[in-house]
Amino acid sequence: MTPRGPLNVLLACLATVGIQALMLSPLVPDIAVGLATGVKEVGFGAGAYGAGVALAALFAAPRLGRWPKRKAIRIAFAVLAAALLICALAGDWRIFAAGQFVVGLASGVIIPGTYALTADIADPADRAQAMGRVLFGWSVSMVAGVPLASVEWIQAGSNEAGREEKVALTLPKGVRCKAVADRSLNDMLLSGEIDCMVSATPPKSY
């Protein structure tokens, strides 16, 4: 049976790549403000990431069979970390886009390298199960890669409209919350205005 430890590390590899990719889109407006540029220019940076992934996958994937996979993944992660640091320190959208392109190149090596290494270390009898476990990293990234700043929070009564918060809220920076006085959370849940609700009182319609 294939040891769980190495598979969990490879799962974390995919989750890391997925999280940093998914976090970019919701933060584009904030990044544009930070770089004193337009959303379109930052969008070019996001596009540069995709171009880097495609280019690396096109040229690196066919050669992974001849490369030491563990070493290739380690080097790619070091490059990814350096490129993300460049993006974080960028003062111009062009530098940000260049950093994102390099992040894409590194990701384009990590993704196929992770798949290939999984196949190498897995026992033939449970190779499909091992691959499924590693691919779960994408599911983890879909949940963990959505920043709280991309979620709009609604403050309202659970089942009755008009509830007023009597305690002043001190929210973390970037968290958006608006008060709605003419509808309850239950009403908004039924109409599809909100995806879910967090309340000590269950919605009366469920």
Fraction in helix: 55-70%
Strand order of the largest sheet: 1-2
N-to-C order of helices and strands: HHHHHHEEH
- Taking the alpha carbons of the first and last residues, their distance comes to 44 Å
Using only C-alpha atoms, the radius of gyration works out to: 22 Å
Outline type: flat
**How much strand content do the residues show?**
under 5%
User: Major sheet: size, sense and barrel closure?
Assistant: 2 strands, parallel
Number of helices: 7
**How many beta-strand runs?**
2
| Low-pLDDT runs | none
Structural class: mainly alpha
The average pLDDT is 84
How is the secondary structure organized here?
Elements: H1 4-22, H2 28-34, H3 39-60, H4 69-89, H5 93-121, H6 127-144, E1 152-155, E2 176-179, H7 185-191
Parallel strand pairs: 1-2
Descriptive report:
With 206 residues, this protein is mostly helical. It has 7 helices and 2 strands. Strands 1-2 form a two-stranded parallel sheet. Helix 1 runs antiparallel to helix 5, helix 1 packs parallel to helix 6 and helix 2 crosses helix 3. The longest helix is centred in the middle third of the chain and has 29 residues. The radius of gyration is 22 Å and the shape is flat. The mean pLDDT is 84.
Summarize the structure.
By secondary structure, the chain is mostly helical. The protein has seven helices and two strands, in the order ααααααββα.
